[in-house]
Amino acid sequence: MFTERLAQLPGGIELSYTDSGPPASSSTDYTTVIIVHGMGFNAHGFEKLHDLAAKYNLRTIAFQRRGYQGSTEYTDSELDDQYNGRKSCGDRLALELAYFCQHVAEEHHIPLKSKDGKSGGIAILGWSMGAVSAMSIFSDSTNLPSDIHDNLAKYIRNLVLYDPPYQAYGYELPANYEAPKPASDQTHAPSSEEIYGAVRIAISGYYDKPKDWSGDINALDQRMRADKVTVDGWTAEENRNYFSLESAMKADFSMFMPPFQKLVGEVTRGVLFSETAAKGLFPSVQVTLLYPERTHWYCVWGSWITQKLYNECKNRGEIIRPLNVVHIKGGNHFTHHDKPNEFLAAVQTGLSL
C-alpha cells in the first residue's frame, strides 16, 4: 500500500504526493522515480504503479503539481508570469522541483546514485505536459543556487521524458500541416469543458502509424476518437480522482499560448541541445525518451522531431546529453494505467542504458 504525504517547501509551498515506499528494508540501491503528471490528468492516475514498483527495485513518488488537489495554488502574479511566458516562470518551476527532490532525499534517506550512475539516486519522470516542469531543472544553471545543485548532483541521474506532445517541447507544426476539417454539424464555438472533454478522449486513444512511416505528419491518424480509448473504461470514481478540469483550465491552459510556448522552446534547447548545459548542469544526467508506439499523433510528432534534432546535433559533432529511446510496443499515452508492468519494465530498461 502506498502512503499519502505532504512536502513543505521553502516559501510556504506545499506539494501533496503519494509514495510507494522503499522496495525492501534490505535494498540499498533502489532508484526513486519522481513523477510529474500532465495537464488535467493528475498524480492519482499513477497509483497503480506503487504496488508494483518493488518488483523493479524502484520507489515511485507522484506529486500533485501546484494548482492541483492538495498542493498550493498559484498566485495571480505567478499565473500572469506563465501567461506571458516570463523567464521567472521557468525559474520557479526549476527551483520548486529542486526543493521537492531535496525534500525526498532528506526526508526519506534514499540511496545516493552509484558511482557508475546505473543504480540508486533519483530519476525525474515527466509525463505529457509534465515534461515541461521535469525539464526545467536541467535547462539553465542560473535557476538553482550552487549548494542545491551540488547536493542534488549526488542523487539525480536520469531525466525520463514519458510521451510528451510536441507542445511540451515548444515545437511548431510544419508549414505543410493540414488540420482535420471540423465536424459539419458544429454550430457553435465549443466551451472549455467541451474542448477538454474532447482532448481527454483523443489523447487516451490507441492509434496505429502507417507502415514504414517516415515523418509525414499528414499521414498520421488524427481522429478525435480512436476505436479503443482508455478513459472509456474508467468508472465515475476514477474520472473524479484522476482528472481535474478546474485545475487544467486555471493552471495549465496558458501553457499552449505563444508566449509560454516560446519559453518552453528555450527550455528544450537548453536541456536537449545545449553543449553548455550538458557540460555544466548535472553533466552526468542522461535522457530517456519513453515512446509508446500507439500513442496520439501530438506525441508521435514530438518524439519524431526530438530524435531528428538530436541526430542532427550528433552528426555535427556537438556534445549534448545522451538520449536513449525506449519503445513500448502496444502502449498508448496511458501505458502507466493500462499496462503498468510493461511501463515499469520500460522505465527500468531506460535507467539501465
From TrEMBL:
Source organism phylogeny: Eukaryota, Fungi, Dikarya, Basidiomycota, Agaricomycotina
Domain AB hydrolase-1: start-end pairs: 33-346
Pfam families referenced in this protein's UniProt entry, alphabetically: Abhydrolase_6
Recorded coiled-coil stretches: none
Top-level taxon of the source organism: Eukaryota
Transmembrane segments: none
UniProt protein name: AB hydrolase-1 domain-containing protein
InterPro entries found in the cross-reference section: AB_hydrolase_1 (IPR000073), AB_hydrolase_fold (IPR029058)
